[in-house]
Amino acid sequence: MYEFVLKGGILMYPILLCSVLAVAILLERLWALRRSKIIPNSFVIEIGDLIKRNKLEESMTLCKLNDTPIARILMAGIRKHGRGREVVKEAIEEVGRMEAASLERYLTTLGTIAGISPLLGLLGTVTGMIKAFTVISHAGIGNPQMLAGGISEALFTTAAGLTVAIPAFVFYKYLRSRVDKMVLRMERISMDILDLLQQQEV
Fold first, then answer.
1. pLDDT tens track for 161-200
2. What is the per-residue pLDDT across 136-171, written as a single tens digit (0 to 9) for each?
3. C-alpha triplet 133, 159, 163: angle, nearest 5°
4. Which residues have a Cβ under 8 Å from the Cβ of 11 and sit 6 or more positions away?
5. Alpha-carbon distance 12 to 20, whole Å?
6. CB atoms < 10 A from the CB of 91, how many?
């Protein structure tokens, strides 16, 4: 592995750093975006049941004890209960935007890694070819072994950049889709709870 990095030249180090960051972000987001940690089914069922029975104090307590994004969103709405649908909806949406931003944490960085890794590889290709042509200008083409260093550097960095970029892009799209689905589900649950709160006002 170390020999592979050496053959690729100095630009292999930022590519290697990108790969380490991409793996770290992927593992952190896979752990953070577990459904049980974002939208636990048992909580959603219990909070809906409490609101149907008009037990708003108990529902507030349940939200406080449940440290999840959906609990914080619903608690914002329950706090505004009795002030009209628009006020409750606005409170839910405001907290919802903050929670959605929290779910998207580090995804921009992962997308950036997917974008710059092939560019770093391309830059390595250019520097490698410059070295090869420098050898040609000084020693001619009579010694292929001298050319091999620059050409191999060009190929190694290109391969390394693409090896990092392709999985990073795939996982970025996967995590992005996962976040979007969770945000959509939280919106639906929030609107259902909003309707239940509205019914209690009647």
1. 999 999 999 999 999 999 999 999 999 999 999 888 887 6
2. 666 555 555 555 555 666 778 888 899 999 999 999
3. 155
4. 120, 121, 123, 124, 127, 157
5. 12
6. 20
Residue linked to tokens 């914080």: 72
Three-state SS letters, the chain? CHHHHHHHCCCHHHHHHHHHHHHHHHHHHHHHCCHHHHCCHHHHHHHHHHHHCCCHHHHHHHHHHCCCHHHHHHHHHHHCCCCCHHHHHHHHHHHHHHHHHHHCCCHHHHHHHHHHHHHHHHHHHHHHHHHHHHHHHHHCCCCHHHHHHHHHHHHHHHHHHHHHHHHHHHHHHHHHHHHHHHHHHHHHHHHHHHHHHHHHHC
114: which 2 tokens? 């997917």
